[in-house]
């Protein structure tokens, strides 16, 4: 079963099951088997070298009991020194190789997750919200990164030391090795008690963190609405409850872990007791020397730390595994569908939507056979009530959404969304300003644009004056943590990007809706300059945009109800005339247009 088969609910992205998560990890490790084998080999050499001094210590005990001369200590000391040096020299490279392998896996995981997130259908992101996705690419990635840089290298080194030490005890005498192995079932029992209880707890904790992140993101993004309706206390109460839930789950996880520690300590006690009793009996019967018995006891005692690391780091491994399952769940999501290959190349800049039907994720259909034709170089305005489907048509025309049926053609060619976006650019009322110098934000549209070209684009939309008046001109840092731009300035920035990108077809989806009356009039002039000579589809929030268009398409409930010129539709007295009269009543100055 893959992640896409087991969604956690309509409000969350799916989480991969254990089988799929381990399948992903095995596939990644198979692709790097040489690096993995080298890391294990170097680690095994280091572990073996660290056991040599304990063997030598046992021999030293025997020399003392045999009253050997002082010169006999020299070779033993030399062996201890060489073993310590080799072990120390191998420990660093071994840890480095393991850490590098883990970091490479993490880097690929992070890139794959972000790449898939960017290719997800818009409908998926709208359904699940941004908080869950953000928590996965931030909190979950951080949990895996901590495990990759610290926990996993420590666990592998500890595991190799345990294996070598148990083999060394068996090499002294098989009965000593068997006595040491008495603790293994106890350790396994402790793990079998802990893991089934801990895994659901960690998964629950990750979900609670995601829900908390969702609330925080929604509150920050909608802070103006929160203030407008005085929802501060209600939102804070919700965030507080979510935070308390995260805290309570974390406390229960820690309580469970402390009970696990008690079981581990009991396993250590019984294991060491078995070694000491067995060693005493074997020495008494002459099967082993005092030194060999002492060496076995020291070897087992030295395992307390590595075994403790192995067991106790399961705490963090469980959290990392839960996070890994969440990221693999994103990777396994199906990207936005790309329809069949296009039928030829566009011959001009015309845009046509033919018999387009669309529904959002199984919801009722929102577009019912919509057909719109825009000749090359024409300006067509799309108007209608809220919820009529205007923005959905704009997104389909821009290649952001894929219609359930019907086609989108550019210059007579039916293009898949990926190719469609090469010919069509869309500007919405929600424009993001990326953190960095203003000129670099402009160059998002064309990375090779010169400063002169960037300035010319700003001048064309009437934005050069305010841009050059910024503290550092076009080099001023804008976006998060930088100079804050007004709503109108942000839209002008988007229109300047449009000029630099220079697409043959432009779509303006209520691009002047948030600027206020005076700002909107200026933006309409900027938009006219940016779209001059381009085929333009305008989702008109302000009907003055419709009045200046070549043709007006009126949409209601996902169907076209009227189509024609502004004066023609006003004279017809239909739905558009009603909208125009309502617009004139709100904005008397519009009649002058």
UniProtKB/TrEMBL annotation:
<keyword id="KW-1133">Transmembrane helix</keyword>
<protein>
    <submittedName>
        <fullName>ABC transporter ATP-binding protein</fullName>
    </submittedName>
</protein>
<dbReference type="InterPro" id="IPR003593">
    <property type="entry name" value="AAA+_ATPase"/>
</dbReference>
<feature type="transmembrane region" description="Helical">
    <location>
        <begin position="35"/>
        <end position="58"/>
    </location>
</feature>
<dbReference type="InterPro" id="IPR027417">
    <property type="entry name" value="P-loop_NTPase"/>
</dbReference>
<dbReference type="InterPro" id="IPR003439">
    <property type="entry name" value="ABC_transporter-like_ATP-bd"/>
</dbReference>
<dbReference type="Pfam" id="PF00664">
    <property type="entry name" value="ABC_membrane"/>
</dbReference>
<dbReference type="GO" id="GO:0005524">
    <property type="term" value="F:ATP binding"/>
</dbReference>
<feature type="domain" description="ABC transmembrane type-1">
    <location>
        <begin position="37"/>
        <end position="319"/>
    </location>
</feature>
<feature type="transmembrane region" description="Helical">
    <location>
        <begin position="151"/>
        <end position="170"/>
    </location>
</feature>
<feature type="transmembrane region" description="Helical">
    <location>
        <begin position="176"/>
        <end position="195"/>
    </location>
</feature>
<dbReference type="InterPro" id="IPR036640">
    <property type="entry name" value="ABC1_TM_sf"/>
</dbReference>
<keyword id="KW-0547">Nucleotide-binding</keyword>
<dbReference type="Pfam" id="PF00005">
    <property type="entry name" value="ABC_tran"/>
</dbReference>
<keyword id="KW-0472">Membrane</keyword>
<keyword id="KW-0812">Transmembrane</keyword>
<feature type="domain" description="ABC transporter">
    <location>
        <begin position="351"/>
        <end position="582"/>
    </location>
</feature>
<dbReference type="InterPro" id="IPR039421">
    <property type="entry name" value="Type_1_exporter"/>
</dbReference>
<keyword id="KW-0067">ATP-binding</keyword>
<dbReference type="InterPro" id="IPR011527">
    <property type="entry name" value="ABC1_TM_dom"/>
</dbReference>
<feature type="transmembrane region" description="Helical">
    <location>
        <begin position="269"/>
        <end position="287"/>
    </location>
</feature>
<feature type="transmembrane region" description="Helical">
    <location>
        <begin position="70"/>
        <end position="91"/>
    </location>
</feature>
């Amino acid at each position: 079963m893959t992640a896409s088969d087991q969604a956690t609910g309509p409000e969350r992205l799916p989480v991969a099951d254990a089988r799929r998560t381990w399948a992903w990890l095995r596939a990644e490790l198979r692709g790097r088997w040489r690096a993995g084998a080298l890391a294990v080999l170097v680690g095994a050499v280091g572990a073996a070298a660290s056991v040599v001094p304990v063997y030598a210590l046992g021999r030293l005990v025997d020399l003392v009991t045999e009253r050997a001369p002082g010169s006999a200590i020299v070779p033993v000391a030399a062996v201890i020194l060489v073993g310590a040096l080799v072990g120390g020299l191998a420990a660093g490279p071994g840890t480095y190789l393991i850490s590098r392998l883990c970091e490479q896996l993490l880097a690929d995981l992070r890139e794959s997750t972000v790449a898939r997130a960017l290719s997800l259908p818009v409908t998926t992101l709208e359904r699940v919200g941004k908080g869950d996705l953000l928590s996965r690419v931030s909190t979950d990635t951080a949990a895996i990164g901590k495990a990759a840089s610290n926990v996993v290298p420590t666990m592998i080194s500890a595991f190799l030391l345990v294996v070598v030490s148990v083999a060394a005890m068996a090499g002294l005498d098989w009965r000593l090795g068997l006595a040491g192995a008495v603790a293994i079932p106890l350790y396994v029992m402790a793990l079998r008690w802990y893991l089934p209880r801990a895994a659901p707890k960690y998964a629950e904790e990750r979900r609670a963190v995601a829900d908390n992140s969702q609330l925080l993101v929604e509150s920050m993004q909608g802070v103006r609405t929160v203030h407008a309706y005085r929802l501060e206390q209600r939102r804070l109460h919700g965030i507080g409850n979510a935070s308390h839930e995260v805290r309570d789950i974390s406390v229960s996880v820690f309580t469970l872990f402390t009970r696990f520690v008690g079981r581990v300590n009991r396993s250590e006690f019984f294991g060491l007791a078995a070694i000491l009793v067995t060693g005493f009996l074997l020495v008494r019967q002459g099967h082993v020397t005092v030194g060999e018995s002492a060496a076995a006891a020291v070897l087992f005692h030295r395992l307390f730390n590595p075994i403790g690391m192995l067991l106790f780091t399961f705490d963090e491994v469980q959290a990392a595994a839960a996070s890994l399952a969440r990221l693999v769940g994103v990777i396994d999501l199906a990207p936005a569908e790309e329809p069949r290959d296009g039928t030829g190349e566009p011959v001009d800049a015309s845009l046509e939507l033919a018999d387009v039907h669309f529904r959002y994720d199984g919801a009722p259909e929102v577009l019912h056979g919509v057909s719109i034709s825009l000749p090359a170089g024409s300006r067509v305005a799309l108007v209608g009530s809220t919820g009529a489907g205007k923005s959905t048509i704009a997104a389909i025309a821009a290649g952001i959404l894929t219609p359930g049926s019907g086609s989108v053609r550019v210059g007579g060619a039916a293009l898949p969304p990926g190719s469609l976006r090469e010919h069509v650019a869309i500007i919405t009322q929600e424009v993001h300003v990326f953190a960095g110098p203003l000129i670099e934000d402009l160059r998002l549209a064309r990375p090779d644009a010169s400063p002169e070209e960037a300035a010319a684009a700003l001048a064309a939309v009437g934005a050069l004056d305010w841009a050059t008046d910024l503290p550092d001109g076009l080099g001023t840092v804008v976006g998060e943590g930088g100079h804050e731009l007004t709503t109108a300035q942000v839209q002008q920035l988007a229109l300047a990007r449009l000029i630099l990108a220079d697409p043959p077809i432009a779509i303006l989806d209520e691009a002047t809706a948030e600027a206020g009356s005076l700002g909107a009039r200026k933006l309409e002039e900027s938009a006219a300059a940016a779209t001059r000579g381009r085929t333009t589809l305008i989702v008109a929030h302000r009907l003055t945009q419709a009045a200046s268009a070549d043709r007006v398409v009126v949409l209601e409930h996902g169907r076209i109800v009227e189509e024609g010129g502004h004066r023609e539709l006003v004279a017809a007295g239909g739905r558009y005339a009603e909208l125009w009269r309502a617009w004139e009543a709100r904005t008397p100055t519009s009649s002058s247009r």
